[in-house]
Amino acid sequence: MAGLDDVFGDLFASVDGVALFSPSGSYYEQVTAVEDLNVIVVGTENSVGAETFVELPLEFEDVTERIRFGLEGALEQDVIEDGDELLCATSAFSDGIDTISRVRADAESHTGIYDLFAKSRAEPEVVKAVLELAIELGQKGQKGKPVGALFVVGDAGKVMNKSRPLSYNPFEKSHVHVGDPIVNVMLKEFSRLDGAFVISDAGKIVSAYRYLEPSAEGVDIPKGLGARHMAGGAITRDTNAIAIVLSESDGLVRAFKGGELILEVDPEAY
């Protein structure tokens, strides 16, 4: 009768490394005791003092997102290579590691999400909340109709200096933050109108209806994208903000940083 090693042996055979997601100290010591094994720790902090560490900006609840983000970060930091086969050990049903999967690192499937979170001035929770809001708008639209929107996140003072109001700012005297369900409903309603939303590093809604005025000279965006995307790219070149743009025409969500397109997401596939 076949044993478990016979059934699951291929899962562990010839791997290039092991990615441990937020391991305990004892678990980390056990794994690193195996000779000639490349061990990478992925988590919000390096509590075990691992030599090779990839930081997660958030505790991703979804296991697939957690692993995808961790491997993209590992590729970005050159601690693994394209095509490497890795055992990913993480938690799915308890606080400790209880799930192991074998994943092939694929540089071609690079999404840009590591760049968006790990290299942004705004707090990761804020970036996540705005990205999810844009994706939800892309999925549902405004009263069933496609809608476009532009969110500029971080470095709000400089962004305000490089823009002007198109109308009365409904958030001028408020202290509301993105991520609050009631506030998100307000943002969806206001998205029907022109102009950008400006959001602080900490998530405060600074303004709606802003016309962005940075020069578009030297900003290279893919053909077919319009003024909203050009403005988003330009403002991120001239400030330390990121821009998250929902396209009314094709329904995709795109993110810009440093004047460059770094992320493209289809809301229907999210």
From TrEMBL:
Q: Where is the DAC domain?
A: 110-267
In terms of superkingdom, the source organism counts as Archaea
The protein's annotated catalytic reaction(s) are: 2 ATP = 3',3'-c-di-AMP + 2 diphosphate
Alphabetically sorted, this entry's keywords are: ATP-binding, Manganese, Nucleotide-binding, Nucleotidyltransferase, Transferase
Which PROSITE patterns does this chain map to? DAC
For this protein, the record's Gene3D superfamilies field holds: DNA integrity scanning protein, DisA, N-terminal domain
Which Pfam families did the record assign?
DAC, DACZ_N
The prosthetic group or cofactor this protein requires is:
Mn(2+)
According to its UniProt record, the EC number is 2.7.7.85
A GO molecular function for this record? manganese ion binding
Concerning PANTHER family, the annotation shows: DIADENYLATE CYCLASE (PTHR34185)
| HAMAP family to which the protein is assigned, alphabetical | DacZ (MF_00840)
The similarity annotation says: Belongs to the adenylate cyclase family. DacZ subfamily.
What does the UniProt record say this protein does?
Answer: Diadenylate cyclase that catalyzes the condensation of 2 ATP molecules into cyclic di-AMP (c-di-AMP). c-di-AMP is a second messenger for intracellular signal transduction involved in the control of important regulatory processes such as osmoregulation.
Q: This protein is called what? A: Diadenylate cyclase
Gene from which this protein is expressed: dacZ
